[in-house]
Each structure stands twice: as C-alpha cells, then as structure tokens.
Amino acid sequence: MSVVKLKRYVDDIASNAAALEGQTVPSQELNLFVFTNTSVLMEVFCRIANGRLRTASGSTEGCLAQFQFSSAKVDASLYEDRRRPGLTVR
Question: pTM of the full predicted structure?
Fold first, then answer.
C-alpha cells in the first residue's frame, strides 16, 4: 500500500468519528488480542474500514494506533465473529 493510499485510509476512518459513550479501546490493542482464527481480527478491521465501527471523536489526532473505538462494539463484533472455528483471548 502506498503512503498516499494509507493516508487516505486513515483520513477516511478519522472522518467517520463520532461521540462514543462508555469505555473505549485503542486500535493498537486490537493487535494484542490472541486469535487462532485470524479472520475474526480481519473482520473487525473491515468493520473499522467500512465505518460500521466508528472511532471516537477527539481520538483521531496523531497515529492510527491511538484511535479509540467503543469497547462494547468491539466486543460485540468479536463475539459475533467468534462463532466461527477458533479461539479469541482478550
């Protein structure tokens, strides 16, 4: 992926920011989850990319790793996608 495309990708995620209630989780922590089925993690990132998981307003300054997402919505996505074979440890 070129730098220009990567910048556009991050800008698209940032432009979809919304006020979120409750606890949040930074995107860098998503990579710390342990998966035996990597398609689960890929689905979470796809939901972020297509705007179904929105980043929190005020967390979009700086690097993508610091963007905050609703913990409840991330957990719900993981739960929904965990029904596939594999194991997720958080």
Answer: 0.78
